[in-house]
Specification:
Radius of gyration: 14 Å
Number of helices: 2
Number of domains: 1
CATH superfamily: 2,3-Dihydroxybiphenyl 1,2-Dioxygenase, domain 1
Number of strands: 8
CATH class: Alpha Beta
Mean pLDDT: 92
Oligomer: single chain
Strand content: 25-35%
Structural class: alpha/beta
């Protein structure tokens, strides 16, 4: 079966900061650098690209407005999920719904919810 998503383009305000934050998280969950500081690729071929558009207006991302709310990534072990949680703050991410970890999405759903400095949310889900 071919992959469901070919790639994601994220337009960011600060490309260098985004490369640091996203690069750390994606590396932790098994993605590899494709173009240093710009894109990362998953073993299935899906890639994520971050850039600042030359035509971009300086406006903060707001995941609560119309558009994409968040991106969900998978991990294979609970130990990895816990490690990402423990190390995320040092890499520009802060935890959402911390009091309900790891079941903020429901009793049968194991996940970590993070938000980076530009307001992008990522749900890191333990794969079944």
């Amino acid at each position: 079966m071919p992959r469901a998503i070919h790639h994601w383009d994220l337009w960011v305000n600060d490309a260098a900061l985004a490369a640091d934050e996203w690069g750390w998280l994606l590396g932790e969950v098994g993605w590899e650098i494709d173009l240093p500081g710009q894109s990362w690729v998953h073993p299935d071929g899906t890639y994520l690209f971050v850039e600042r558009s030359p035509d971009q207006v300086d406006e903060l991302h707001d995941r609560l407005r119309p558009g994409v709310n968040h991106l969900a990534l998978t991990v294979g072990t609970r130990e990895l999920l816990d490690r990402v949680r423990a190390e995320s703050t040092a890499h520009g991410w802060h935890e959402l719904y911390a009091a309900r970890y790891p079941h903020a999405g429901g009793d049968d759903h194991v996940a970590l919810y993070l938000e980076n400095s530009e307001g992008f949310e990522v749900e890191v889900v333990l794969a079944p």
